[in-house]
Design goal:
The chain is mostly beta strands and 188 residues long. It has one domain. It contains 1 helix and 14 strands, in the order E-E-E-E-E-E-E-E-H-E-E-E-E-E-E. Strands 8-7-6-5-4-3-2-1-14-13-12-11-10-9 form a 14-stranded antiparallel β-sheet, covered by helices on one side. A hairpin with a 2-residue loop joins strand 1 and strand 2. The protein starts with a strand and ends with a strand.
């Protein structure tokens, strides 16, 4: 069964678009896609992230497609049998040695609700081209409900999780804050 989440995007407190996250849990892994449309003052356009995850929730394939004034496609694929991670952008491709399971940006967000961290604890995850640190912050109460909070670095993103769902993501972009807020959810 498919889970569907709809998010409202804000930049500097103004609405700038919407996103739709679809998560399909399958035997042996997960397939997910996030489709976003942006309006001014952000550069207008569409962005689509797609990921396929293994049974442990780590990335097998990831693709980011950005459509604006031009179309850009970035892809990462784990080729375990060959022992490499293939990274493609446009016509260029590079192969890196596959050393350990890693997250892509979307798989990391999907992993956050299942993390068993106590406030103050931090974990590091490999990502293509680097790493990300996830720190559990103290819970906050919003409208009488507890939300777990995480800080992601680099990028200094704040993510809030409520009842196993990502309900808010905020990140400093330039001099303002970009924010995604859950509007509705369907599915289990």
């Amino acid at each position: 069964m498919k889970e569907v989440y709809r998010y409202a995007y804000h930049y500097a407190g103004r609405p700038v678009g919407e996103g739709r996250l679809e998560v399909e849990r399958r035997r042996g892994g997960v397939r997910a896609s996030l489709q976003a449309e942006f309006l001014p003052p952000l550069p207008p356009g569409r962005q689509r992230w797609q990921t396929e995850l293994d049974a442990e929730g780590f990335s097998l394939r990831f693709q980011e497609r950005v459509e604006g004034k031009e179309v850009r496609v970035f892809a990462v694929e784990r080729l375990e049998e060959e022992g490499v991670v293939l990274v493609s952008q446009g016509k260029e491709s590079l192969a890196y040695p596959y050393l350990a399971p890693y997250h892509d940006p979307l798989s990391l967000f999907l992993a956050l609700p299942g993390l068993a961290l106590e406030p103050g604890e931090e974990v590091r995850f490999p990502m293509p081209g680097g790493r990300v640190y996830v720190e559990r912050l103290p819970d906050v109460e919003v409208e009488g409900r507890a939300r777990r909070q995480y800080r992601l670095r680099p990028g200094l993103s704040l993510v809030q999780v409520e009842e196993g769902r990502l309900v808010r993501v905020a990140q400093q972009v330039g001099r303002h804050v970009f924010e995604a807020v859950l509007l509705e959810a369907e599915g289990p």
